[in-house]
Design a protein that fits this description.
The protein is elongated, with a radius of gyration of 22 Å. With 160 residues, it is α/β, with parallel strands linked by helices. It starts with 7 loop residues before the first helix and ends with a strand. The protein is built from four helices and seven strands; from the N terminus they run H-E-H-H-E-E-E-E-H-E-E. Strands 5-4-3-7-6 form a five-stranded mixed sheet. The chain has a two-stranded parallel ribbon with strand order 1-2. The longest helix has 24 residues.
């Protein structure tokens, strides 16, 4: 039956449950092993949240409550399906995916980040995406190299 033939509340609810899909990056979906486990956990949590909405008796409320978890299930399922797990690096000569790099800025600050996949990046926790501007400038560089970033110089101190 068309929503046009149901009560007005159902029409409003139907439009509320049509959430657009979360955008998926066009970059390769590279992940560390830890990142893959976290992504699988997020998928399971989204599935659990969606399943929990089945207990809601009111159909309109169920649709409203299920919209976000269902969107997350679609997103995380796609990300798990396209994931490429990259083993931890065995070389510390040059910066690569999975390495932790420490660099100094020309203003004296010293920062350390691990270069990881987009879904696992969290700069506040010390990880940045391999497609971030800083990481793309650092990839392939060695200790002692310097790169220009936004009018400032970053000098690589260590790679682990």
């Amino acid at each position: 039956m068309s929503v046009a033939f149901t009560k007005e509340e159902s029409s409003e609810t139907a439009s509320e449950t049509l959430l657009p899909d979360r955008p998926i990056s066009s970059h390769p979906n590279l992940l560390t092993e830890t990142g893959m486990k976290a992504l699988e956990l997020q998928l399971q949590q989204a599935r659990d949240a969606y399943e929990a909405t089945n207990a809601i008796k009111d159909i309109n409320e169920r649709r409203r409550q299920a919209a976000s978890p269902l969107r997350d299930v679609r997103y995380f399922a796609a990300r798990v399906r396209t994931a490429q797990v990259i083993p931890d690096p065995t070389s510390f000569d040059t910066i690569a995916f999975g390495n932790t790099v420490t660099f100094s800025r020309d203003d004296g600050r010293v920062q350390t980040y691990r270069i990881v996949g987009e879904d696992e990046a969290d700069p506040k926790a010390g990880s940045i995406s391999f497609v971030s501007p800083v990481a793309t400038r650092l990839m392939g560089k060695a200790v002692g190299d310097a790169v220009e970033m936004g009018g400032h110089e970053l000098e690589i101190i260590s790679i682990s």
